[in-house]
Design a protein that fits this description.
229 residues; 7 helices; globular
């Protein structure tokens, strides 16, 4: 995997396809390989897809004392700048979607479009995390590291909903109606705030069920078929 030196770490990434660049960002606790299924669909639409491993995930080390969301956002903005192809399209699943969303709020000029899959503008509550992955004392390995209440990626989601009005790029928001990490109402509220957003609520589908869902494939394909390139 090629690397780009970003904020004190070597960010590893893969790349395939020709055309305008889509930076695709994976979920928490996994690597860029997890997005292979969706990357293939985007390449099929005539795009170049770049999939970095976020700090502390996959092949990208984390020499910093934390992996707070603002640090991940700073990383991806620097990565895109050093990639030298701005403005880019961005696609993110779960944590990757939050990184893309917060990066676009900070630098809307960097992004042509956004696809936010199974994500939110605010972190899941500790109560919700306890129900899904157990209490902090029971978490182990990567799950414990990523969801640590003090140093993990759930820290730093502090922008109010109104702050995202600055994102004027075409945006596709996709959520499952039974997503255990995210309240679909939050996705609806975000959709109403963004001036150029589309919203798809996939019925009878939880967080992981969005992966490889036919409705997700169709919606993403349609979006990249009509979005300005």
């Amino acid at each position: 995997m090629p690397t780009i030196r970003v904020n004190g770490t070597d960010m590893h990434y893969t790349e395939r396809g020709d055309g305008p660049t889509v930076v695709a960002l994976h979920a928490a606790t996994v690597s860029s390989k997890q997005l292979g299924w969706l990357s293939s669909a985007v390449v099929h639409e005539g795009f170049n897809v770049v999939t970095p491993d976020l700090r502390g995930h996959g092949e990208t080390p984390n020499p910093a004392p934390d992996m707070h969301l603002p640090r991940l956002v700073e990383d991806i903005l620097e990565f895109i700048y050093l990639l030298g192809r701005t403005p880019v399209h961005a696609l993110g699943y779960s944590l990757g979607g939050a990184v893309a969303l917060y990066a676009a709020q900070q630098r809307p000029d960097v992004f042509r479009s956004l696809v936010l899959l199974g994500t939110n503008y605010r972190a899941p509550s500790e109560q919700r995390l306890r129900q899904i992955i157990g209490p902090p004392e029971a978490r182990e390995g990567m799950v414990q590291e990523v969801f640590d209440t003090e140093t993990g990626c759930i820290v730093g989601w502090e922008k109010p909903l109104d702050a995202f009005r600055t994102i004027v790029a075409p945006t596709l928001i996709i959520t499952g109606d039974r997503d255990e990490f995210n309240d679909p109402q939050d996705n609806l509220d975000l959709y109403k705030k963004l001036p150029n957003a589309e919203l798809l609520v996939v019925p009878r589908t939880d967080h992981l069920g969005l992966v490889r869902h036919p409705m997700v494939f169709r919606a993403v394909g349609d979006f990249y078929g009509h979005v300005p390139r």
